[in-house]
Amino acid sequence: MMNTTIEGRAKSEHGVGADMALLKERALKVREHIIRMSQGGGCFIGASLSCVELMVYLYGEVIRRDPAQPQSPDRDYLFLSKGHDVPALYGTLVEMGLLPPERLSNHLSTSDSIYWHPNRNIPGVEFHSGSLGHLPAVAAGVALDCKLKGASNRVVVITGDGELNEGSVWETILVANAYGLDNLTIVVDRNQFQANIRTEELVPLEPLADKFAAFGCEVRRVNGHSFEQLEAAFGEMTIGGGPWDGNGGGWQDTNGGGHHGGVGDGGTLYGGGRGKVKVVIADTVRGKGLPSIEARADRWFCSFSAREVEQLLEELHGNKKAKIESETLVVR
Amino acid sequence: MTYEELLTDMALKDERMVVMTAENRALVRNMPQTLGRRFIDTGITEQTMVGMAAGLALRGRIPVIHALAPFLTMRAFEFIRTDVGIANLPVKLSGFIPGFLSDGNGPTHQAIEDVSILRGIPGMEVYAPADEDDLVKMAPAAWTSQAPAYLRINHKKGNYEHAPYEPGKAEVIAEGTDVMLLVYGFLFENAMAARELLTMQGLSAGLVNMRSLKPVDEEAIVRAAGRSGLIVTIEDHFKTGGLYSIVAEILLQRRLTADVLPLSLGERWFKAGVLSEVLAEAGFTPEKMTQTILTHLKK
C-alpha cells in the first residue's frame, strides 16, 4: 500500500532511525509559532507547549501521507481530541510544509479558520474537536473501517489527561478492544493539569497505566519530550495493527464469539497482543520550554503583549527570563 | 415488507452501508447473519456508537444506527450535533419506541422532545412515519440522501396503504374546510378515526400525514391555513419545538395567521401503562381528541 515517496516513517517498519537533530530543530520552531500565537487574543499556550514533541514526532515519523494525494484513503490518520492544543498542530503543519506560514498571522481572524480549536478547513486536520472525549470514538470508527477493508492504516488520537475524566473515552476503549482495534493508538499528553487545577488534586488519574491495562490496552509510558523515548516506544509497536481475525463481541452470533484482545490473552498485563488498542502515556510539562510559565496552574490560557512575546522568544532560546506582567487565570 | 427486510436488501446492494446498534436489536435481529461484519453492536454505548458512526462516515460509509429513541437522541445528543451535525455526515439515526410507543416504561424512556432537538441541528432531516408501511416507503429516501437523518421509528403495522413517498411532501389523506388535522407518526391511526368521528358530526374534516418534519411540506401547512377554519396539530411530543411550533414558524414567516389547536403533551411526561390506557389518560383516543376539537370549535 505505502511506498517510499510517502512522508513519515517508523523505525519499526523501515529500520531507519529518526533524524533527532532535525526533529529538535523543528520542535523549537513550532514553539516559536506557538509563542507568537499567544498575542492578539491569546491561545492555550500551556497545553500546546506540552505536546510539541508529540506532534512533531507523530507527523514526522509515524503518520504516512502521500503529499501528492493528501486525502488518499490509504493515508494514516492523526486526530487531536483535546483540541485546544491546536497551536502546536498549526506550527507543526507549517514546519512540515502542509500549511502556508502566512496563515498563522490570521490567528483569530474570521477571514481564516485558524482559531482555538481544530477544524477541517486546515489541511492536515482530519476532524474538528474542542468538546472533550469525542475523537477516540471517531478515530475508532475510522480504525474499524480500515479493519473491515483489510487495510493497515495507522489511526492515532492525541488526548489530554484532564480529558480522561470524560466517560466516553473509557466507553470507547471498551468497544475498541471488543472489536480488536489494534490499529488504534491513543497518545495521552500527560501534562498533569486540567485547565487550572492539577489532575491529581481534583480527580486523580494515577495509576493511569494500570487503568488502561485493566481496560485491555497495550500500554507504554515515556517522557513525552524525549524523541529518543518516543522513537523507542513507537518502534516497538505494530501501530498499523496486526492481522485481524474479525472477531469481537458484536459478531459472536456469526462466528462463535471470542476475541484476542482481552487482558491475559496477550501475555503480561502491559504487554502486546493481537487485538489490543495501544496507549502511549507521554509524561510532559505544561508550558514546556518557557520556565516562566512551566507547570503553573495560572498559565493555562495566555494572552501576552507584543513585548512579552519578544521576551518569551528570548527565553525559549535560553537567554534572559521574560518579565511577565499580563493577567493570569486563577480558579483557586 | 418489514424495516429489517428493507434494510437488509439495501445494505446487501450497497457496500457503503453498515448497520450499528447500541445493543438494541429489536429492528435488526437477523442482520448479524445477513450482513456479517457490517453489523456492529457496540453494546450500551450510545455516545461511542454515534462517534464511531461519524468515523465510519468519514471513510465513506453510510451507517444506519439503532438505539431506543430517548437514549439515541439525548444521551448521545452532543455527539450527534458535534460529530455528525457539524461535519454534515450521512449518519442515519433510527430511534426505536419514540413517543407513546414507550408505553409502560415511564418518563426515562419517553422521547417526546426528539423532534424539537433533532430538527434544531443544521442539515439534519427528520422523518416520522405513521406505521410500518409508511416507514418502508420513506426509509429509502432517508438512507439515500446525503444528509444526516433521524427516523422516528414506528414499526407497527397499520391498516392504511400509503402513497409512494415524495421527498419533503406530506400525504394528504382528505381535504376539509372546517377542520384540518395535521399529524405525524404513531397517532396517525387515531387521527384517521377522529376525522371520521368529526365527519359524522357533520363537519368537513381533513387529514394530512406530515411524514417528513424536516424538510417539512410548507405548502401543505399554508394550504390548510387558507382553506380550513381550524388547524389541529396532533403529536405525542411536548408542545415546544414539535409540529405546533413548526406550523407557528411557517405561518409567521408567511405573515399568515390561523386558528391552531395543539393536541400535544404540553409540558408533561405521560402516565406510563398499557398503550390503550396511556392514550386514554393522555387524551389521545379518537373520542377524546374529537371531544377536545368540538369543545374548541364551540368557543
Structure commentary:
- The complex is a heterodimer of chains A (332) and B (299).
- Chain A has a single domain (23-285), classed as Rossmann fold.
- In chain A, α2 (20-37) crosses α4, α2 (20-37) runs antiparallel to α12 (306-316) and α6 (135-148) runs parallel beside α7 (167-178).
- Chain A contains twelve helices and seven strands.
- The N and C termini of chain A lie far apart (52 Å).
- In chain A, β4 and β5 (197-198) form a beta hairpin.
- Chain A has 332 residues and is of the alpha/beta class.
- Residues 1-12 and 253-269 of chain A have low confidence and may be disordered.
- Chain B is α/β, with parallel strands linked by helices and 299 residues long.
- Chain B folds into two domains: 3-152, Thiamin diphosphate (ThDP)-binding fold, Pyr/PP domains (Rossmann fold, 3-Layer(aba) Sandwich); 171-298, Rossmann fold (3-Layer(aba) Sandwich).
- Chain B is 40% helix and 18% strand.
- Chain B is built from twelve helices and twelve strands.
- Chain B has helices spanning 3-13, 31-35, 46-58, 69-75, 77-85, 114-119, 132-144, 188-200, 218-227, 243-253, 275-282, 286-298; strands at 17-21, 39-41, 62-68, 92-96, 125-127, 149-152, 171-174, 179-183, 205-209, 212-214, 230-234, 260-263.
- In chain B, strands 2-1-3-4-6-5-10 form a seven-stranded mixed sheet, with helices on both faces. A five-stranded mixed sheet of chain B has the order 7-9-8-11-12, with helices on both faces.
- In chain B, α7 (132-144) links the parallel β5 and β6.
- In chain B, α8 packs across α12.
- Chain B starts with a helix and ends with a helix.
- The interface between A and B is medium-sized, with 34 and 32 residues.
